[in-house]
Fold:
Amino acid sequence: MNIKEQFVITVSREIGSGGHTIGAKLAEALGVRYYDKYLIDSLRQKFNLSAYEIEKLKGEKKSWLADLFGKFSSVPNPALMNEPESSYLQNIREQVTTDDIFKAEKEILRGLAAESSCVIAGRSGFFVLSDFPNKFNIFITASRDKRIARVMEKQHLTKATAEIIVDEVDKMRDNYVKRYTDTSRYDARNYDLTLNVDNLSEEEAIEIILSCIGAK
Structure:
């Protein structure tokens, strides 16, 4: 990847691995925008965007995505609830079962990546942006125990609840990726870098990534 030209970095990660924070800090270090699933979900929901509506907007004006961001103010800060059958899991289930959501999100991601250099978290970015010429795909992983402990700490959950959430989200995310990409999110061939962060701080992980992309 050439960081002197427009680029996109995708960060796929396991729940509780700290990949979301690593992605945000990586974008900050590179001085580019960071797009996570909450922003993309919120953008789609706020403007009731379907794949059809996005295609219609694209046909009307080239700056359709920029126009939407100009109208987009607040981004929710959703958190895991204290129950396994929470709105967090319900939201993921809806995403897994709704084809039109995937199509709409795909168009939003491609629009974001085409607009300017950025870091994109999740959303099967490694697949959706596979034809982009200057990209780098990352997968952040950690042991199940470490991830459960992180979810417990961050969301103030019991161990039993955190275990249920980690296991169910792992399964649903992989099912989602398999359904729409015909590959597993755990297939290392999908990524330029697979990083186990069990024994790394967030800063150390970012240093490794920066070195790999030639930013050091």
Confidence is low (pLDDT under 50) at residues 74-86.
